[in-house]
Records
---
Amino acid sequence: MTRYVIFLLFTFIVQNSFAQVPVEQCGYRYEVERILQRQPNFFIWQDAYYRAAMDEYNQLQSDKRDLIVTDTEYYEIPVVFHILYNNANENIHDSLIYNQIKELNLAYRKLTPDTSRIRTVFKPIAADVRVQFKLATVDPNGNPTNGINRRYTTKTTFARNIYGSYTTDMKDSTKGGVRAWDPVRYLNIWVCDMEYPNYLAIVYGFATPPTGAPNWDNTGNVTKDTNDFESGVVLHYKVTGKKNPLSPLKYTEAKTAVHEVGHYLGLRHTWGDGTSATGCSVDDGIFDTPNSRYSNSTCTGQNTCNDGAGDKPDQTENYMDYALDGCAAMFTLQQAYMMRYVLNNFRKTLPYRNISSDTIQTPLPVDRSVKVYPNPVDDASKLNIHIQEPQSLVYSVNITDACGRQVLYRSFTSNQVFDIDLSGMASALYFVIIKDASGQIISKEKIVVR
Ligand SMILES: [Zn+2]
C-alpha cells in the first residue's frame, strides 16, 4: 500500500467517524434501543398508555370539566444530583445545581419570563404542569442531605465511544459511576463528562422513559421502572445549570435538563423521532403538538408538515423539540396531562402531593468573594485581583478609564492571586470590570491610580 493510499484510507476513516457520530443533544433513541433489547414490547405498551391518557383527557374535555380547575394538586419531586468528577471543572459549583433546580421549576410551573417567546397561536395551550422539584433533604438512610452527592471517579469520560456503543457506567458503582438512590423515592440526576476526546462523540443528556406497567409483558423479564436502578436523567456537566461558564453558546439556559425530565416523565420528541422521509406520518402521540418532519434547531417559523385544516407551524417553543435555548418556553396542556398521568400510574411513589405552590426552591447565593486591592494603587506597583470560590473558573478583567475607553484586558483563573502591572499608567480614576465566561458582570469597582 502506498503512503498516498494509506493517507486516503485514514482520511476516509476519520471523515466517516465524524459522519457517523455527530454531536447529539439528546440520547433518547439510544435509551429506547437499550430498553427494546430487554423489553421488545416497549412501543406497544407505550402506545397503549398514550391512548389511555389521551382518551382520559378527551373525556374530561367533552365533559366540559376545566382541567385547571378540577386538578389543582401540586406535586413536588425530590431530586438528588450525583456529580461524578475526574477534574475540578467536572465538579460543578453548587450554585449551578441550585439554579438548575430553579430553571426546572420555572419551566414546569410556566413561570419563566421566556413564555414571552410563545407565539399567539400556542399561548392558549401552554401549560402549568404543576410539578415542582426540590433537592432532597433526607438521604435513603434517613440522614440529612443537601441533595448533592459528589463522587470522585477515575473515569475521564462516560462518552459513547466512536463506534456508537452506549454506556450506563455512570450509574454503576463498580464501573466508576454511582448507584442510584432509591428510584421509587428520588429523581436521580447524574452529571458527568460525556464528551469523547476531540469531540468525536458527545451526548448532552439522556433519560429513561417510564417502563414496566403491570401485565404488559408476560415473558417474566420485565424490569419495573420503579425498581430499576438505572432510572433517571443523565446530563453532560457543561450543560447543567444556567449560564454554566463552560457551556457551549446554544446551551446556556439550562433547558437540556427540562427536556430530559420531560422524557423521564413519559414525553417523546415533538417530531416523533421519524426520519425525514417518514417524519410527517410519525407522531409523538400528543395531539396539541403539531406534526413536524424532523427536529428543529432554530425557531424561525418553519412548518415542515401540512396537517390539513387547522394546520399550525412547528411548535419550536416546545421543550421536547431540539431548538431549546433561545426558543423553548412551553409544554402543552396534553403534555402536562401525560406527565401527570405517568406520575399517577407509573411513578406513583415519587412525588410529594398536596404541597403548596409557593414552596419553589430558590437558588443559594453564590459562595464567592471578589477582592481588588490595593486601592488607591501606586502607578509603580501591581493591582491584585483575587476571586475565592469552591471551583476554579476563568474570568476576564477589563480596565477602562472614566470615559469608558478600554485601557487593559486580561483573562485569569479564580482561586489564585492575579496581579496586573500598572507601571506607566496615568494617574487617574479607572473602572475594573470583571466578567464570568458567559459575559455576566460579577464585579465593577472604581480604583484610583496615583
Ligand atoms: Zn430528547
Note: Helices lie at 3-20, 28-38, 42-62, 67-70, 94-108, 255-264, 333-345.
---
Amino acid sequence: MPISVEADILSSRADTVIEPAVLSNETLTKMYRDMVLIRRVEESLLELAESGKIGGAMHTAIGHEGTAVGMAAALQPDDYLTCTYRGHHHSLARGMDPKRAIAEVLGKADGFAKGKGGSMHFLDPSLGLMGANGIVGAQVPHAAGMALASKIRGEGRIAITFFGDGALYQGVMHETFNMSQRWLLPIIFYCENNRYSEMTPIGRTSSVRDIYMFARAYGMHSLQIDANDVEVVYAAVTQAAERARAGDGPTFIEGITYRLAGHMAGDLETYRSPDEIEAQRAHEPLVVLQRRLLDRGADEKTLAEIRAEVEAEVAEAVEFAQNSPWPHPAETYTDVFAL
Ligand SMILES: Cc1ncc(C[n+]2csc(CCOP(=O)(O)OP(=O)(O)O)c2C)c(N)n1
Ligand SMILES: [Mg+2]
C-alpha cells in the first residue's frame, strides 16, 4: 500500500526563513538552460538504461536540478565538492562536458574516468569535484578533511558536501558535524531531502521531522529551504559560503525537494502512487523557474528555442558516447593507486 508524503513539508519555524535572491532575467535564463540540460541528460540516461546499455546501478536526480544549478552559481569553480551516487546533476552544473559524462556512464573510453568509474563515481578534480560515493554518508567526512586542509594551507577554498535525508542516521555524519563545528571548518553540509531513502518514506525513518534541527545539537547554524526554487538555493548557498569564507564555520542546509524518477533505473516504484508524483510536478524546479521567467517578461518562444537547442546537444552527446570505444583491457591495471 503506497504511503503518501505530504506535498509541502517546509517547516513554519520563523528562524529558517531566507530571503530569495532576485537574479537578473539573463542569469535566470542561463540557469534555465543548465537545468533543462541536466534534465535531458538524465532522461536520456534512463532511456539508455532501459535498453540495457548501462551496466550496474544508475541513480538520476530528476527533480533535484534547482539544487545543483543554484549551488554552482553561488560557489567558486574550485571549491571542493563531494556527493553521493546521485551526483550527475552536481557535476553537469559545475561544467562537466555532457559527452564525457554520458560516455562514463556507458563505461566508454572517452568518459572522464576512462569508463572505469561509471554513474556512481562521478569526479573531476579540475572542476573541484572530488568524488561521489556509493557508501551512504562516506563522502561527508571526506569533505570535512578537504575543508580542514584548505584551512591549514590557507587556500581560501571552501567545501560543500551533498547527502540524502537517509544519510542522517549514519554515526559518521554526527562525528563530522561535531568536529567541523568545533574547528569552525569552511564547509557547507547540504542535505537533499527528497522524502525517500530508497523505498522508505521519511516518516518511517525517524521521529525527527525537521532534519536541519540535528545540526543545532552541535551548535551549528542551520536552515531549511525550498530547494525547488533556484533563487532560494542560490541565496542560501551564497550566505553559507560567505560565513565559511569569513571563518564563521559550517552551515547545514536542508533543501526540501522531491525525486520525480525512481530511486534507480529499473525501480518499479510500488511504494508510492502516480498521484503523489503528479501532485509534486506542479512545484518541480523547472516548472517553478519557467513560471517565474514568464512572469518577469521572458517570452515562451525563447524558452522553446533553448529546449530545442539542448535537445540537439544532448542527442549529439548520446551519439558521441555510444560511438566511443570500450577501454582497452590493459586499462584494468592503471589508475588503481595514487602515489
Ligand atoms: C552504508 C550504506 N548503507 C546502505 C546502503 C544502501 N543504500 C543505497 S542508497 C540508500 C538510500 C539513501 O537515501 P538518502 O540518503 O535519502 O539518499 P537518496 O538516495 O534519496 O538520494 C541506501 C540505504 C549503502 N549504499 N550504504
Ligand atoms: Mg532521500
Note: The chain has eleven helices and eight strands.
---
Amino acid sequence: MQSYTSILKHVGNTPQILLSSPGDRVALYAKLEWFNPFGSLKDRAALWMIKDAENRKILKRGQTILLEPTSGNTGIALAGIAKALGYEAELIIPSKASEETKTLIRRIGAKLLETEDDLCPRAGPGTDQCIALANAIIKAHPERYVMLNQYANESNFYAHFEGTGPEIWGSLRDVTHFIAGVGTGGTLTGVAAYLKKKNPYVKVIGVQPQRAHHIQGLRNLEESAAPELLRRRIELIDEWVKVSDGEAFNAVKTLAYTKALFVGPSSGAVYAAAQKVAEKLNSGRLVLMFADDGRKFWSLYDEFKVFTREEFNYYSRYAKHLPANPLLYEEPLRTRLKMES
Ligand SMILES: Cc1ncc(COP(=O)(O)O)c(C=O)c1O
C-alpha cells in the first residue's frame, strides 16, 4: 500500500541542530521531532506499535478500532497513521489537553472520548479514569477493539532503540549526555539503551515537571506511578532534573527570542533542564529531545502569557526549522491521504 510506505518514509530521521554557539564550553544539540509527519516524537512509537501488531496479525483492515488512552501526541500520531493504514482510532484523552490537540485529532477523523484525569494519564493501578474506560470498552467488544498500550508496549521502546538512538549516534559519536522528558519512558529508555550500548559513559538525564504541571506529554513521578515501560529499565536513567512550569515557559520564550525556534512546552522543559546540567559541566555535548513545536499550544501560551497573539502568529509563520507539516496544518488530511493511497 503506497500510503503506508509514504508515511513510513517520513517517520524518523529528524534533523539535529546545534543550539549553542561554536566554541561554547558545552555544546547543546536539539533533535527536532516536529519534523515527523504528524508533528511529534510520538509518530515513532505509533508506527512501531502498529507495525508490530500487524506482524502479530491482531489487526484487521476496515474492522479493527485502535483504542488508546493518551495525553495528546500519541493520539494525533495513532489517529493519522491508523487512518493511513485503513484502521479506525478512538482516543481517550484528559479534557485538560489543549483544545488544539483535540481539534487536530478530530480533524484527522478519529473519535475522541474525554475524561477528568490529570494531564498525563496515570499509569498506576486503579487510579486512572481513561485507562479504566479503555479496559471497559475492550471488555465489552473484544472482537473490534485493540489497545496497543504505549505504557507497556515494547515496540514503543524499540522505536527509539532502533530509530532515534542510532540516528543520534550516527550524527554525533561524541555525545556525552542525552536529555528528554518522560511520558511513557519509551524515548528515554530506548535512546539510553542504544547510546549506552555504544558508549557506557553517556549520561542519560530524565526531565520531570513540577507537581500539578501544565506540560502536556510529561509526567511528574511523585504524582503518578512510573509506567511499566519506564520501570523495566529505570536503572538506565542517571539523573532526574525537575523543572517548574515557569522555567519551562521562560525557556520556550528564550528559544523563540534568541534562536527563532518555536517549541512546545515539553521542549521548553528539556531546554531549561539542559541549562541546569550544563552549568555543572566543564565540557560536553548534550543532545536534547524537542518533542513537538509550538503551533498547537495557543490556548496554553495565552493562558500563561508566554506569547501575545501577534508573537504567536509571527513565530508560527517565520520561526526557523518549522516545516509546513501539511498533514496537520494545511490541506485537509483526508484528501491528502486519499491521494496517496
Ligand atoms: C510533548 C511530549 N514530550 C515528551 C514526551 C515523552 O515521550 P515518551 O512517551 O516516549 O516518554 C511526550 C509523550 O507523550 C510528549 O507528548
Note: The chain has 14 helices and ten strands.
---
Amino acid sequence: MIYRWLTCFSLPLAMIAANVSGRVELVNQRGVKQKRADGVAVWLEPVQGRPALPPGKLHVITQKNKRFLPHVSVVPVGTTVDLPNFDPIFHNAFSNFAGQPFDTGLYPPGGTFKVRFQRDGVVRVFCNIHSTMSAVIVVVPSPWHTSSGAAGEFQIDGVPPGEYTVKFWHERATEATLRGLDRRVTAGDGPLQLPAVVINEAGFIPSPQANKYGRAYTPPPGTGNLYGRGKK
Ligand SMILES: [Cu+2]
C-alpha cells in the first residue's frame, strides 16, 4: 500500500525533470582539434533566481603518485573537499584563488585535510613541494553540473523545467572565450540535446607553476626523502 502511494506521487516528479546533454570539442592554439576533451566543467544557472543547493556535500580529491585525482572537479557552493594523502610521502595543498585561500601545511602519508568552499569561483590547487601536482575545483552556484568525458560528452540529469544559461569552463581557455560560450536553453519535461560546443584555446597564455611563495620549486637541502624528491 505504501509502495503504491509512493509510486503515485513519485511518477509526476520523475516526469518533470529533464536531462541536458551535449558534447564539447577542444581546438588548440594551432587550430587543431584535440582527441581528448575531458575535464571541461559544464553547469546550468537559472535565468531568474538562485537555486537551492544541496547542504553539506563531500567531495574527495586524492593525492596519489604525486597527482591530484581527479584533476578537474565541479562542485556546488557549500561543498567540503577532502584531500587524503595516499602516497608514502608528505604532501601539501594550497590555493590563492577565488578569494578562498587555504594552505593545509605538510601532512604525512595517511593524513587528510578538509576545505569548505563558501562561494563560487575557480579554485586552482597546488602542492607546495611537488611541481607535478595541480588540481582545479570549479565551485558553481548550481546543483546542476558535470564535467566532460574523454570524447567531450556530458549529461546533466534532474533539471527542472525552466530557462537556463549553460556555462562552460576549460583550463586552457581565456575568460573572453568562456564568456562567449554562454547559451540560453529551455528545459522541458524530456531530454534536451545541445549542439556541439567548440572551445578554442587561442590566446590562452599558460603560466609556470610556482610554489606558495610564488617561486620555483626547490626543496630545502637535506629534505629529499621527506619530499619524495627523485621518485616518480
Ligand atoms: Cu605533494
Note: The CA atoms of residues 37 and 152 lie 4 Å apart.
